[in-house]
């Protein structure tokens, strides 16, 4: 079952159609990256999911419950950190967890568990106005997780975090998944999304322009371009044996492109070509990444032609 299901979501404010027929879902234990340039409609979508905005039309189900008609049930399955980190500067970390615990009606034991989870130690009893971004993020995550929601929404969770804190966040997101929750997170940090998400949904000017996995050949360093003596035989030899998504490159002169997923596969590819007397004249390891993918998507959706 989908933990989040959005169908035909439209949002109009005045004459401005902010969201145009958005549809996507998030499955159990999935981590989905929510991307798009400034003003593309990510926050508006998130606010509709959280019941903070009325939709003009459409349907949003959280864990099977309709956000409009079964609001309480739907929102009880949701934990969201949408204007992160929005903390009260004059309260301590522990105060925040206690307050949230009372509000979400969770046991004292669970609050204690999440106090531990923050890893904040003595800082838990200090005012949050002295916290670093990483500390704030850990507290926000603990507050979001307190009621064990099925769906967790994080708005730009990597914002302002240093590489170590991003690494920790990644570990925490994996742990959240293991405990049975799903995550939808928005971000502008494409490199991070590439590392964190199973799948991405991309909006552009209020429309969904992509929903799917990040193609392997667009991940950093996985695609190789090879110049070989016999393209046809090289493809026959390598297809199904090593490499994936083998294709002939238009630049001519015997160039093919293929995805290699490990060093072993790389070695296997070379020995397979050599043992079949196919010479390799040149090899280029491509540094394509999600940013390239992003550009491709926008070009395909014609966003540059729109106003
Ligand atoms: N309350 C509002 N009234 C009028 N227009 C709004 C309102 N809220 C958002 N918009 C418009 O809707 C569009 C989408 O905004 P939204 O904040 O959802 O984009 P976003 O993808 O989250 O952008 P960012 O990455 O900058 O956070 C923008 O053009 C914005 O100006």
Automatic annotation (TrEMBL):
The keyword ATP-binding applies. Signal peptide: none annotated. Belongs to the ABC transporter superfamily. One of its GO terms (molecular function) is ATP hydrolysis activity. The lineage of its organism: Bacteria, Bacillati, Bacillota, Clostridia, Lachnospirales. InterPro entries: AAA+_ATPase, ABC_transporter-like_ATP-bd, P-loop_NTPase. SMART domains: AAA (SM00382). The keyword ATP-binding applies. This is ABC transporter ATP-binding protein.
